[in-house]
Amino acid sequence: MKIRMFPLFTCLFALALCIQSVQAQYARFVESGVIEFEKRVNMYAKIKDRIGESSFMQQAYEQYQRTQPQFKAFKYNLAFSGTQTRFWPQDSQAATSGGFFGNDPSIDMGNIIAADLLAQQGISQKSIYEETYLITDSLRRIQWRFTNESREIAGYECRRANALVLDSIYVVAFYTDQIPVSGGPESFTGLPGMILGIALPYEHVTYFATKVDDRPVSAKELAAPTKGKVVNYRELREQLESSLKNWGDYAQSIVKAMLL
Fold it and tell me: What is the pLDDT of residues 154-168, one digit of tens each?
């Protein structure tokens, strides 16, 4: 009796499907750990937006270009476990510098942000000049729009989603469902997985994960900040707009940075 043989490629295809099915079945999901983020600010673009047509400021800007790099980088950590997250600057982070433009608080304020994703509550410590605020409020509800675009970040396949926050700030986020925690850097949450990348194109700022340390997280790493004048976001906006009312358009960039 003659035995029919399947073509070799058919067998290999079937084997590949079986391997893929097994891998999907036993895919490992990370539920606790610490993510390292790098925040990058395009200083040239940010300053250019700020100075407008001022000839004096143009000279200061040109001097800045001659002496300072285009991008300023800041390192942050994001600890997560279950429904708890905490975002904070690394201990080794250098103070903002760069002369006249380097002290702009909208560039970086070293925020510390703890979030309870189940209760949808957050506590944020933010500093502006000599004042430190402790903001206790509900987490921002963001209407994300999903796309088909994806990219790899820190070894994880991430899907893109877009949103508009504070009525005018366009946000691009990349999240992975391999970390089933609906958190992210700063106050960005609400996606079906951990956000490993954030871009604010018109603010000239990005946050991208550089490393994910899959490990148990201590209570200290998740502890909420406690220092500062207690306010909610409505009270914070009112106080900032009142104290900066004579600062013109520049005040708006500071207010937006504090409310993000």
Answer: 999 999 999 999 988
